[in-house]
Design brief:
It is a single chain. With 371 residues, the protein is of the alpha+beta class. It contains nine helices and 24 strands. The chain folds into two domains: 261 residues, no CATH class; 93 residues, Thrombin, subunit H (Beta Barrel), CATH 2.40.10. It is 27% helix and 34% strand. The longest helix is centred in the last third of the chain and has 17 residues.
Length: 371
Amino acid sequence: MISKTIKAKSTETISKEIVNATTDGFNPTLAIVFLSIKQDWKAITKELDKRDIAVFGATTSGEFIDGDIEEGSITIMLLNMNLKYFKLKFLETGEQSTYENAKQMGIEGKNTYTNPAFIIATGWLSNDGEHIVEGITEGFGSDVTIFGGMAGDDLALEGPIVFTNKKSSDKGLLGLIIDEDKIEINGIATCGWKAIGTTKTITKSEENIVYTIDDKPALDTIIKYLGVDYDFNSGKEIVTQVSAYYPLQMEREGVAPVMRTAMFANREDRSLICAGNVSQGSKIKFSLPPDFDAIEKVVEECNELKTEKQPEANAIIMFSCVSRHLSFGVLIQEEIEQVKEVWNAPMIDFFTYGEFGKSKIGNNEFHNNAC
């Protein structure tokens, strides 16, 4: 299998890049498309569709390709994967719940291949992240490979979109189902964040809304504990300081913590709205702002994956939380470049609103602040 990556700032230029990539006889069957919501993704999909190239697409909050970070651009990975080895499935939350759709996707994979892997992208389904993992697992079975990310919209927080040939939705669930007996898929969900302070308890929550921590208003607890200075009476009340620098680590016995990002604050009831469910009774710690140690941890776990399971790769797909970009700043370039160097293969990635995958210790889960 051969993969090639291309990028551009306009539909016209990306069309030329597609032509350039295929002049040597390269005949791609699949395009992984990550682009800014400001770009004309419909026109780009049509351009690929007329060449009979299947599209797995998502809007982003920043793109990066082969180690280079882009903003407001179009990035595409073209692959000449055998048509028998993959299948695209697009489902939209509506009459069927997200969980029911995810279960249907798991069943589809089970009925199509003996050993399927699922690479997924979703629209604006942040409080359904766990339901997606649970649904696919229920439909297929517990021993399943799932990796992916939630689409972004350049931090407008108005409605990221997933799309494929002739289909799109801000509440869509898009699955690239791959026959693992033919195409090997390996991956890891990792973050490198270090915990700080004492363990606290989520004493009142409902799905992705946290009302109280240790019986005190969640927002007030974070402001007091972390000394966050923010004007909650202005803007869209995006808690960038909290979400980017001090995510919550949900502790679990025997498995790695899972991260939760506070995306909004409600100044009236002093609650936090997180990018993922936080169960009442959960034990949490805050996190230290990241440094080079966090990057080293991520690269270390990627190198372990290379040694133990995946010595070589034809392609790398990376889903990295936009909060990592906000908190790492220019250091995020180091992380991306070092991950690429592990396998030195063509690489496409985007900054997400949430990530799906299995950590070194644990099951498939919905993550925040991970990659």
